[in-house]
Amino acid sequence: MRIVVFGASSASGKLLVEKALSVGHHVTAFVRDASKLGVTHDKLKTVTGDALNPSQVEDAVRGCNAVLSTLGPKGKPAVMAAQSTKNIVDAMQKHGVKRLVLVSVAGIAVPQDNRKKNLIDSLLKLLLKEVFVDRENQIAVLNASTVDWVAVRVPRLTDEPAKGSVNAFFGSPNPSFKVTRADLADFMLEQLTSDQWLRQAPILSN
Question: What is the spatial distance between Cα 53 and Cα 44, in angstroms, rounded to a whole number?
Answer without folding.
Answer: 22
